[in-house]
Each structure stands twice: as structure tokens, then as C-alpha cells.
Amino acid sequence: MRPGWKGTPFMKYMAAVLLLVAAMSAQNAPSTSKGARLDIPAISREANGSIVSIIMSDKDRHPIAQGSGFLISKDGQVVTNYHVIRNGTSAVIKFPDGTFFAVDGVLVSDEDRDVAIIKVHGNGLRR
């Protein structure tokens, strides 16, 4: 599924998704006073619940890779790197509170840009 994507509807979709992610991040960013910067603990508190671990498994359900991603929608869309999902046949997402959700599949991926959006089986998830 890697024909020339340049200028195709896929690229327009990916550009729209990336713009949406950027807009959501800017909209949800904590407000700070002029010149103030968030420290790492503050950033971690703000992101808590949105950052996930991804555990990829082979066809025999043996773990083969682990990576991270972040939730971009309450219906379970997660952005991750393509190299995290490249070789697996199934995956689960682990949230910071220890809950696990199965991954339904890959919604879109771009190997050259090393980005993928996967769908977690669940709704009403914190974003």
C-alpha cells in the first residue's frame, strides 16, 4: 500500500490529520504566564493518561516490540511511529493506570515518515 502518495488523497488526509493533532495540542496546552516554561513534571502531569505504551506481538502472540504513542481522540486513535508496528500482527495498548486495550488495526501509516495512526478498541478514552 505504498504507491506514490505525493499529491494523492492519502497525503491530503495525512496533512489534515497532522494539522488536527497540532491544533488539538495547541488548544489543550496549559496556559502559562509570559516567558514561563513548563518543567518536565508539569508536562508529565498534563500528558498523564494520553501517553500509552504499545506492545506488539507476533502471530503466536509472543511480544516482539514495544514502543509508545499518544491518544488523539476519545474514540481510541493513537499516533505512534511506524517502526513500532511494522513487524507485529497484533498489539495491545497500556495506559499509565495499568489498563490494557486491544488494537483493532492500523488506520493509516507512512513508512517513509515513520508515522502511523492505530485504532484502540474502546470509546470515551481520555485525550
Description:
The chain has 127 residues and is of the alpha+beta class. It has a domain at 47-120: Beta Barrel (Thrombin, subunit H). Helix content is 25%, strand content 33%. It contains three helices and six strands. It has a six-stranded antiparallel barrel with strand order 1-2-3-6-5-4. A hairpin with a 4-residue loop joins strand 5 (100-110) and strand 6. 15% of the residues are buried. Mean pLDDT is 78; it is low at 1-6.
What is the residue-mean pLDDT, rounded to a whole number?
78
Helix content: 25-40%
Q: CATH-wise, what's the superfamily of the domain at 47-120?
A: Trypsin-like serine proteases
Main sheet record: 6 strands, antiparallel, barrel
Distance between the termini: 29 Å
* Class per helix and strand makeup: alpha+beta
- Strand segment tally: 6
Looking at CATH, which topology of the domain at 47-120 would you report?
A: Thrombin, subunit H
CATH class of the domain at 47-120: Mainly Beta
The largest sheet has its strands arranged as 1-2-3-6-5-4
Q: Assign an overall shape.
A: globular
Give the percentage of residues in beta strands.
Answer: 25-35%
List the uncertain runs: 1-6
What Rg is obtained from the alpha carbons, in whole angstroms? Answer: 16 Å
CATH architectural category of the domain at 47-120 = Beta Barrel
Secondary-structure element order, N to C: HHEEEHEEE
The number of helical segments is: 3
